[in-house]
Amino acid sequence: MTGLPSNPDPQATTRTAGTAIATAIALAVLLLVDLIAVVVLPRPITLRGPGALADVIPELQHFVEHARGLRFHHNVDIRLSNDLGALNTGLSEGTGAGAADAAASQSAVLRALGMVDERYNEKAAAQSLNSQVLGVYQPRTHRLMVRPGPITARLRITLVHELTHALDGEHHQLVRKTKSIRPDESGTSFRALAEGDAMWVESRYRATLSAADQAGATAADGPAPTGIPDALLLLAAYPYAAGRAFIEELVKQDGTDAVDRAFDHPPITSEQILHVDRYLGHDRPRVVVKPVPEGRVVQRGVFGELLLRLMLSRSLGADPARRAGTGWGGGRYVAWRSGTSVCVRGTLVMDTAADTDELVAALRQWATSRPRARVTPSPGRSVMFDNCVDA
Asked: Are residues 335 and 194 in the same domain?
C-alpha cells in the first residue's frame, strides 16, 4: 500500500472508469523495454478480422512516433494468449497461509482507513479487473501479450497505449529507473508519469477515429468492474486519469520535450502529480517522524496527498476531501497487528497553519463514525490520527 495514489477529481475518475479501468487498467501495463527486432506471432494461433496484427503495427508505431516526437529503434515482441488473467499483475498475488494473512491484513488496513467496509473481497476484486484484460505487457520477458480476436478499434487503441510504453522504454531506460525507485511515493508517481503519457497518446489516437469507431470502442470498454469499492476504483484509475492530466499540463508548457524532461527527472509525490506547479517548482515533501507502532508491523510507508483524499472522500465527499488534502507537506503511516485487531497510525504535516486547521476538522469528521479513531494535533503543523478494526 506504499504510496497509494491520488486523483484530481475522484468523481471525474468515476466518470472515466469505463475507459480508464477497462481499457487502461485492465491492460496491467507498467513499463516496456528491451524490445526485440521483429514482431513475433506464434502459430497455430491466428488473428481474425480485416487484417493481421502484423499489418496494423507499422501504422500504429508511426502514429505513436509522430505524437511523441521520438523514433522506434526496435519493433515490439507481440504474442497471442487466451489466458491474460493469469498473466495480469492484479490486486492479489501469492498463495498459501502467508499470502492469505497478508491479504487479510491489507483488507483490515483499508477498513481502518475507511476506504472499504466488511463486504470487501480482495480476491473477487482482482478477478473482476482481470476479466476485462485485453492485453498484458510482461516486463520480465519483454513481451506484449494480446488476446486473440478481431482487430477492432478498441484493440488498436490498446496497442497505441502499449506502443507508447515501448517507445518511452527505448528512450528513457524505464526498467533501470524503476529498480532505483525508493519505497515511497516515487514509484506510484513514476507510474502515473508513464501511464499518463500512454493515455495522452491514446486520447490523440482516439480523436482520429470515426465517430462510429469511437462509439464502438467506448461500448467495448463496458461498465466499470463490479464489487470494487469506489475508493479502490479511484486508486486503480489514478495513474491513468491523474497521470494524463499531468502530461497535458506539461505539454501545454513546452510540448513533448517537457514530457521527456519529466522522464529524466520524474515526479516523486502524488502532490506533484496532482499539482503540476509543485512539480515544476521542485517542491519536495517535508521530513516526517515515523509514527510508532504498538504491535507487529504489517505495513508502513508514505501517506501522500492521494491516500489522504481517498481516505476522507468516503466520509466527507470528493470536494471536501480534495480541499483538506491540498496543502499536504508530508506524511507517514504504519499499520500493525495487536491481538485480534489491525491498527493504522498516520502522521501528516501541512504547509500552513490554515491548512492544518482544515485537515484537523476533516479528520475529526472522519473519526465521528469510527469509535476507536483518534485525532491528535501536534506542534509544528503536524497531525496524528489512528484507528483500529477487528481483523
From this structure: no
Q: How far apart are CA 299 and CA 336, in angstroms?
A: 7
Same domain, 163 and 49: yes
pTM for this predicted structure: 0.81
Cα-to-chain-centroid distance, residue 228: 15
Residue 7 identity (one-letter amino acid) = N
- Position 140 in a domain: yes
Distances (CA, A) of 383 to 4, 114, 205, 297, 379: 19, 18, 45, 21, 8
Number of domains in the chain: 2
- Flag whether 32 is in a domain: yes
Exposed, middle or buried, 8 (CB in 10 Å: 0-12/13-18/19+)? middle
C-alpha cell at 176: 533501470
Give the Cα separation of 346 and 292 in Å (integer): 9
Check whether residue 145 and residue 80 sit in a common domain.
Answer: yes
Domain of residue 210, residue span: 10-88+133-274
Q: Same domain, yes or no, for 32 and 148?
A: yes
| Same-domain status, 169 and 206 | yes
Q: Tell me the longest C-alpha to C-alpha distance in the chain.
A: 68
Cα 141 to its chain centre, rounded Å, is: 22
pLDDT in tens, 287-318: 899 999 999 999 899 999 999 999 999 899 99
Q: How many angstroms separate the CA atoms of 302 and 290, rounded?
A: 9
Q: Which spans in the chain are helix H?
A: 10-15, 17-19, 53-68, 84-87, 96-113, 122-130, 153-172, 174-179, 186-208, 211-221, 230-264, 270-274, 276-280, 305-316, 318-325, 353-367
**pLDDT digit string (tens) for 369-389?**
999 999 999 888 899 999 999
**Do 220 and 266 contact (CB within 8 A), yes or no?**
no
Q: Give the whole-angstrom CA distance, residue 24 versus residue 316.
A: 28
